[in-house]
Amino acid sequence: MAKVNVSLPDDLLEQVDSLAEELDRSRSGLVQEATAHYIAHLQEKRAAQERRESILQAMADAREIAKVAHPGMDVTEIIRRDRDNDYKPWSIDE
User: Fold this and answer.
1) How confident is the model over 66-84, as pLDDT tens digits?
2) 57 phi and psi, to 5 degrees?
3) How far is it, in rounded angstroms, from Cα 85 to Cα 79?
4) Is residue 92 pLDDT above 70, yes or no?
């Protein structure tokens, strides 16, 4: 296991030590756990942002399809073809 030196403000270090003692953990163990939780939290936020961006792109794509769709056109079929073609550019005439 690697060792690192980290600088913390005195008041934060006091809080870490106090909580570590309260939880019957070592300072190092508490910092490891806190770091792991923080990294997991950031990864979840990034994944959520990527999902939001993907949804927004899908909505924009649907709006583009709607611009060229005419009454009675099977837009669902166009979307399926697009999906099945691995999202390559499509044409209504296909």
Assistant:
1) 787 777 878 787 778 777 8
2) -65, -40
3) 10
4) no
Q: What single-letter amino acid sits at 28?
A: S
Residue 69 and residue 75 in contact, taking contact as beta carbons nearer than 8 Å: yes
**What pTM was computed for the model?**
0.64
Sketch the domain layout of the chain as residue ranges: 10-84
d(CA 30, CA 19): 8
**pLDDT tens digits, one per residue of 53-66:** 999 998 998 888 77
> By the 8 A CB rule, do 62 and 79 touch?
yes
- Torsion angle of C-alpha atoms 33, 34, 38, 39, degrees rounded to 10: -40
Element (H, E) at 34: helix 27-68
Q: What percent of the chain has pLDDT over 90?
A: 60
Residue 75: exposure state from Cβ atoms within 10 A (0-12, 13-18, ≥19): middle
